Amino acid sequence: MVLEVGERKANYVYNCVWLSGFLGVSRSFIFHSSPNTSSKMSTTSTTKFPNLFKALQMGDLTLKNRMALAPMTRARCPGYLPTKLVAEYYKQRAGAGLVITEATNISEVAIGWMDTPGLYTDEQVEAWKPVVEAVHERNSAFFAQLWHTGRQSHSSFHPGKRIVSASNVTMTSEQGTHTAQGTHEPHEEPRPLELEEIPSVVEEYRKAAENALKAGFDGVEIHAANGYLIDQFLQSKTNKRTDAYGGSIENRYRFLGEVVEAVATTVPLNRIGVRLSPNGAYGDMGSPDFREQFLYVVKKLGEAGIGYVHFCDGLEFGFHKLGEPMTLDEVRPLLTEKTLLMASTGYTAEKAEARIEAGLADLVSFGRPFLANPDLPERYYYDLPLAELAPFPTWFIPNQTEEGFTDFPAHADVPSPL
Q1: pTM over 0.85
Q2: Is the pLDDT of residue 200 over 90?
Q3: Cβ–Cβ < 8 Å for 206, 266
Q4: In Å, how far are 34, 124, 339 from 345, measured between CA atoms?
């Protein structure tokens, strides 16, 4: 039974267009132990996709296979707090070697979607703990994705505070922007972050990462894709600054570089990922110099030695058409052995297997197929048919019921969970 949320729900569901895409302990924090790879999950002799189901080493973390649950906003966290239902949702999908949370707010000003989780209060840290425990019960690694929506936000989410961005470039889209009331309104003009403000935003990323570890997460993914705040600094379309954070490709990278450095004071580098979407048009993005910019970004992230680059090479969420799309073979040579390359967007098991076998990707994230197939790894492993794609109106329902969230059944012919 669906909770009655009236016009709020109707407006929100109708207008949503795309999927969005962890101490009171010291630095001697004991991380979740590496998953045991002796289980059937890492047995590849009985599957059509042996490379996809090989174990993978990410620094001191062993992933039981090379499938990742992609971060997908689901709007099921009332009061910006994950619930027992959220724990069930992630546990169902923990057949993946790496589970990445939906985009998770680093502060109040970062919020731009209703009922999305946060990692900036003690209450949120406590609410995440049972979710993390549920995923770890299935021997999967769990990373929290850290998010600031920037100009994609609306002032109704943080009354009295204007939305912020790299510059005062207003987003354009037919549907407008989400509001805290579940409606859509015209996009607001963002306020450029002042030079002296930027360190405090960097600190919010670091603090959210520290909170992720308090909650028990194995690592974090920094969301630098899909037209959100960090992407707004990276791209010339939205970054018109003339100070140290704008102009050259090196300056436009500076904000992300500082976020990575700050997070790395709390989280080991091999447990940090960064998501990029150089080909994407989502969020009214796309810059003429995108290739030059993102080749530099990937090179710098590789030099930093982070755990992985989550590279959205697929075009299924839209392509800006400002040149030939960037591909895995362009960025693969820029990364050292320390930094894994995760492919993303629109992948099938066959395509993922081919990319891994060719050495173009180390692992692949899967998004929408996971919605109606909580046992997607098992279905791929045992070559079982997939359920139909979940109905669009269920993707972002802001309520607390299982409908379109945890009520999709596992395949009856799966011998046992992986």
Answers
A1: yes
A2: yes
A3: yes
A4: 27, 29, 20
